[in-house]
Write a structure and sequence with these properties.
This protein has 887 residues and is an alpha/beta fold. Among the domains are: 308 residues, 7-stranded beta/alpha barrel, CATH 3.20.110; 166 residues, no CATH class; 121 residues, no CATH class. Helices cover 50% and strands 14% of the residues. The protein has an eight-stranded mixed sheet with strand order 5-6-7-11-10-14-8-9. A six-stranded antiparallel sheet has the order 15-16-17-18-19-20, with helices on both faces. Strands 1, 4, 12 and 13 form a four-stranded parallel sheet that branches. A hairpin with a 2-residue loop joins strand 18 and strand 19.
């Protein structure tokens, strides 16, 4: 009887483990019959970086996030990498990496940003592909994408090749394997594009059902070829792959060359984006089930595709429905969740198809959306007559840049165009080793440092020439939108680089040609107005970067070698001095572009005259002696305490070009404005605190009697309590910044005070402004959870868990809307690696947990309850192991 009980305990513990963390191996068997389901997500964001800074500047429309990449990342990409499966109480039952179960492509420009911003999520996506390879006989879920999403049918043959090669190289560097498939921007395709894909080793791509003209079985029963079936109206059967034979020079199919094509199910894919199909996994499964053929065919594929941002960004919470569908709901129906590469390997095409000449998934007029006023993307009163002049202008510029590239590049690079194709590897790794390897392969001779700069300028010119064709620039209704402005910024940078190398002034004619692109906005009138108003002012010189560095140095202690965006500033000399309200700094620096390796020595003198008043001079000095003399002159003027004398000295020694606060990069300017406002805000906080203290009794009387509180008194309470809460929270964060050396409960007094402030705010009906408190408390909770889970078991575990519970409760009291996602992920990982291992070990040994172990497990489970984790299955397993143990 005891043996049976222990066996049951082992079964229960094992079942709980499977319930929480389904193993990736064995979940999707490689069977050859039945219904297969493949969900493809096209995850992509256009390049948004300032071409001079290689960084995305703040985008107010993305608030509360810094930019749209960051916002969509937190609404979609990270939630899919850590998709929650919840119980009916909203507690986390499992955390699923959705990318392990769906086919996906992530654009290289998006992955490059993610690699910098959230390495944890980035790595989880790479792991998902590796795990899917292990599960599906070496066929991973990830497929490549043309590099920066240009419309390939509108590109010249050379650009087609580069875009595909850059996309493949980026994929290979990240995922460690050759891609089998590729996603084409907007699924835009023609037969010359297929030629390029085949030449580069691509096996398949994914298209819309509207892009095929006709199909037929490849071999009939009597050995004859069947007649073609016309399916140009979207009648293609998407439940099978098709072989598309490439064309010979005479237009006839070439039986030796082909690309396989999957056509996604159009109606289901549309419903995913525009109906309520993703409101629950049951709805999703029901809609997929409607597409299953009931003709008893031995196997069929239900293939759906949509923008990956649908799962969480466009449709909040859709990633949860997707995660449960692919891990539970679809397998429960007996369907095999697969990817295109695996299905193709086990079920090669038996049908062939011919495509329409030039098509895309988001334009019913071929690819006119990216070159003509076809009506797509309008949806209002605005025209898109600017599209054709914009494309013609960029084509003209591309051809002019081609001449510069060939004329100057041939002296430095053996084959400039082969070097451009290979430059994709450098774009992913700009280390000295990568550059040395690149030049060793492609240089015509041992290049000098200056020649290397020229070669890199030429290659960067070509990179920006390709970036200016990013499809988003034409997608919407107006040329002055951020997408149109962005591609013009890339064009401007390409023009500038061409001028630096060749001395050729392309900008005047470029602007003149843009004048033929009519804007819908009266302020701009034409594309030329957009360029002059929005593009030209965004240019940044090395002098501006140094001015940024100089003014920032008055408030920040820089390292001797400091990274400023995509530049490295090396301090050769620096001196800072304050006199009364004035602060001055003089320095000599060397600034180097981390991209082109262009370098320049500049000297600066900057003075802060108080308030918002800055004056900065930047100059190139002939010698170190000249710099020393200039520095001495400026500091001598500071001793006079005369503002006029200081400005005159800076202008004379470091002029004639000077810079003020308005010339700083926007984010640095805003940061400094915040610093400069601190003293004023502190005085105001003290004033409001005094008003609140002096009138606390009156304020409480108004609230007690239900009378309207005078606005002045309520505002004083709001500001005073908000300020107090922030001060105490900052102190708490400092006190507990290192749990390894300072026990969590060392901040007990601060936590008590915060709880008292929350109670006081409630009694005064205070509306607290605690924007900065949310990330601070989330960091504190995350550190506390990490400490609790990673420390050796101690007598303080129960008290530490209680402390964590109070922190979570405090966030609720202060109405901060805390996110517990990262602590939940830490906890979930610990639960599977530690707690379940302990339970299994006890079950196998057929022994109950000791009192200490049982108490520790109970404390860990209590921690999970504070973090809104469903621990019921673990409690059940624990009770089976030790029915009489403490709860």
């Amino acid at each position: 009887m005891a043996d049976l009980s222990q066996h049951s305990a082992l079964q229960t513990a094992s079942a709980a483990l499977e319930f929480y963390d389904r193993p990736s191996d064995g979940m999707i068997p490689a069977v050859s019959t039945g219904v297969f389901v493949c969900v493809h997500g096209h995850f992509y964001q256009p390049p948004r970086e300032n071409p001079y800074l290689d960084a995305i500047e703040k985008q107010p429309s993305a608030a509360p996030y810094h930019n749209w990449n960051e916002r969509i990342h937190h609404e979609c990409y990270r939630p899919n990498a850590y998709a929650r499966i919840l119980n009916d109480r909203g507690e986390v039952v499992r955390i699923v990496n959705t990318f392990e179960y769906i086919s996906f492509n992530l654009g290289p420009t998006l992955l490059s940003w993610m690699e910098r911003y959230d390495l944890e999520t980035y790595q989880r996506i790479l792991d998902a592909d590796r795990n899917s390879c292990e599960r599906l006989s070496g066929h991973g879920n990830a497929i490549a994408q043309v590099y920066n999403h240009i419309i390939l049918p509108l590109a010249n043959s050379r650009d087609k090749v580069t875009q595909v090669r850059w996309g493949i190289e980026d994929f290979r560097r990240r995922f460690g394997r050759q891609p089998e498939g590729i996603w084409l921007a907007e699924t835009a395709i023609d037969y010359p594009t297929l030629d390029v894909l085949h030449a580069e080793g691509i096996k398949f791509t994914i298209l819309a059902p509207s892009q095929v003209q006709r199909c037929r079985p490849m071999v009939s029963y009597n050995g004859e070829r069947d007649t073609w079936q016309e399916v140009g109206g979207g009648q293609i059967d998407p439940s099978r792959p098709y072989r598309c034979f490439l064309k010979q020079a005479d237009g006839h199919p070439d039986p030796s060359r082909h690309i396989d094509i999957f056509f996604y199910d159009g109606p289901i894919s549309r419903d995913m984006g525009f109906n309520d199909v993703l409101s629950s996994s049951q709805h999703f499964a029901g809609r997929v089930g409607q597409a299953i053929h009931g003709d008893h065919r031995p196997f069929q594929l239900i293939s759906v595709a949509t923008d990956g941002e649908t799962f969480g960004h466009h449709r909040g919470g859709a990633e949860k429905a997707l995660a449960y569908a692919v891990t539970d709901e679809f397998p429960r129906q007996g369907w095999t969740v697969t990817n295109y590469a695996h299905y193709l390997a086990t079920h090669p095409p038996t049908w062939e198809a011919e495509l329409k000449p030039v098509t895309a998934w988001s334009c019913s007029h071929g690819v006119d959306r990216w070159q003509n006023d076809c009506g797509c993307g309008g949806g209002g009163e605005w025209h898109q007559q600017w599209r054709r002049p914009l494309r013609d202008t960029l084509d003209w510029l591309r051809d002019e840049l081609t001449g510069v590239f060939e004329a100057y590049g041939s002296a430095l690079l053996r084959d400039p165009w082969a070097a451009r194709d290979a430059y994709g590897a450098v774009m992913g790794d700009r280390s000295p080793e990568s550059l040395n390897a690149f030049f060793a392969t492609h240089q015509t001779h041992e290049l000098s440092a200056i020649e290397r700069v020229t070669a890199l300028q030429l290659l960067e010119m070509q990179r920006h020439a390709l970036f200016m064709y990013t499809s988003c620039g034409w997608f919407f209704e107006e040329i002055s939108r951020p997408e149109g402005t962005q591609i013009l910024r890339y064009a401007a940078r390409a023009i500038e680089l061409a001028g630096e190398v060749s001395g050729l002034a392309l900008e005047p004619e470029f602007v003149q040609r843009l004048g033929h692109a009519p804007s819908n906005v009266g302020e701009f009138q034409t594309g030329a107005g957009v360029y002059e108003t929005l593009v030209r002012p965004s240019r940044i010189s090395l002098e501006q970067v140094v001015a940024h560095y100089a003014m920032g140095s008055l408030f920040t202690d820089y390292h001797r070698e400091q990274t400023v965006y995509c530049y490295t500033v090396s301090q050769q000399d620096y001196r800072r001095q304050r006199l009364g309200p004035m602060s001055m700094a003089v320095g000599l620096v060397n600034i180097t572009s981390n991209i082109t390796r262009e370098s320049l020595s500049l000297a600066f003198a900057v003075v802060h005259l108080g308030g918002w008043d800055f004056h900065c001079g930047i100059s190139a000095v002939p010698s170190r002696l000249d710099y020393t003399r200039a520095k001495d002159t400026v500091f001598e003027s500071l001793a006079t305490a005369s503002t006029a004398q200081v400005i005159l000295a800076i202008n004379s020694a470091f002029g004639p070009h000077t810079y003020g606060l308005q010339d700083l990069f926007a984010e640095e300017r805003h940061r400094m404005m915040g610093l400069l406002s601190q003293d004023t805000l502190l005085r105001l906080d003290q004033l409001y605190a005094q008003v609140y203290r002096d009138n606390y009794g009156v304020l409480r009387a108004f609230h007690r009697d239900g009378l309207p509180v005078p606005k002045e008194l309520q505002v004083a309470a709001d500001i005073a309590l908000s300020h107090r809460a922030m001060e105490v929270l900052q102190a708490l964060e400092r006190e507990t910044s290192d749990p390894a050396t300072s026990p969590l409960r060392q901040g007990e007094d601060y936590l008590n005070e915060l709880e008292a402030i929350a109670t006081e705010a409630s009694t005064c009906n205070a509306s607290l402004s605690l924007t900065a408190a949310k990330p601070m408390l989330e960091r504190l909770i995350g550190r506390s959870v990490w400490h609790i889970l990673n420390q050796a078991p101690t007598a303080s575990l129960a008290a530490d868990v209680d402390w964590l519970g109070r922190l979570v409760s405090l966030g609720q009291q202060l109405s901060l809307g805390l996110s517990l996602e990262r602590p939940q992920e830490l906890y979930y990982q610990h639960l599977n690696r530690q707690v379940f291992a302990l339970l299994k070990q006890a079950a196998i040994a057929r022994t109950a947990l000791g009192p200490d172990s049982r108490a520790q497990v109970n404390d860990i489970l209590r921690l999970g309850e504070y973090l809104s984790m469903d621990v019921a299955a673990v409690l059940k397993a624990l009770d089976h192991l030790d029915p009489g143990g403490p709860r």
